[in-house]
Each structure stands twice: as C-alpha cells, then as structure tokens.
Request: fold
Amino acid sequence: MSSSIARLAFCILVFVVSVQHAVGNEIFKIDPAHSKIGFKVHQAIATVTGRFKQFGGTIELDREHPEKSFVTAAIQVKSIDTGIAKRDAHLCSPDFFSAGKFPEITFKSRSVKQTGPDAGDIVGDFTMHAVTKPITLHVKLLTKKGEEVTRWEVTTQPLSRREFGLQFSKTLESVSMIGNEIDINLEIEAVRSK
Reply:
C-alpha cells in the first residue's frame, strides 16, 4: 500500500512541476511553412546554399521572466535541399550526415538571457551526427505581446562541420576545397498553441 501511495505522490509532484514550468509561459509551435532553416558552405569556386524543409519545435515564452523561457527544435536530416538531388542523397549518406542512423538534428535550450528590449541569447545543446555541443542563438523578437503569431530573427556563429564528424575524405575535400565553416540563417515563425 505504501508503495502505491509513493507512486501516486511522485506522479502528483511531476504534474505540479510541469504546471509550474508552464505557468506564465506562452506556448508557440514553430510553423515550418513560414519559417526557414538555411545554410551556406563555401567552396573554391562556388558557394553551396541549402535548407531543411521538415522541422518543428516549441517555444515556451515567458515575457515577464525571459530567463524562464524554453526552446526545443528538431530537424529531419532527409529533408535537406540544396537544389541538386544527387548532392542531397550524398549528404544524407554515411559519407556525411548518415541520415539513416542519425535522422534528426536537435536543439534544446539550457539558459535564456535578455540582452535588449526584444532581444536575447539562448544557450543550448545542439546535436548533429551524434555529436552534442553548446551553441548560442542570438534572437530578436519581431512581434508584440499578445499576438497569435510570433516571429524571430535568429543568428549564430558559423558551425565547424568537422567538429561534428561531417568529413568524408581529406584528399577529396582538399581538391574540392569544401569549406569547414557552415553559415546558418534562421527565420522562425511560430503560432500560439491553443
């Protein structure tokens, strides 16, 4: 009997903590149809640009206490689009992303710091190709409180693809001169959760 009571108490505690986390927060779901997750990689004679077409996430926004806000996101690797199907297939192969083994790129915030009236830094764990590293997203809110849709400008430092194990052949890469740094550009629109 005591073990049942203990389990019940634990469930109630989890529920209370979950409710406390959400109180005061506005919950928004990222709308991929009106958002963009793009990237750019320089080569010797060209620059490859691309995007991911399938992704989602949640923004728990506490405008009164921004440090209590929380962000999670997941990108489907197989949705990569550089405009050339053969190149996309190669990027999804074990030479690069190994999309069959590591189907998602994820971000989960650890801290939020307000840096201006409508700006902040979000530090979080970024996981790609089974490698997790902290990154900082610099965000700017473009919409006002109370709106059903929230829009954000997001910038971050370039990512080193080699740090995430995205290197297939040193010899071939030295010939093609594929750049190591990946420039990221994000435009996020999210809709208030009903």
In short: The chain has a mean pLDDT of 86.
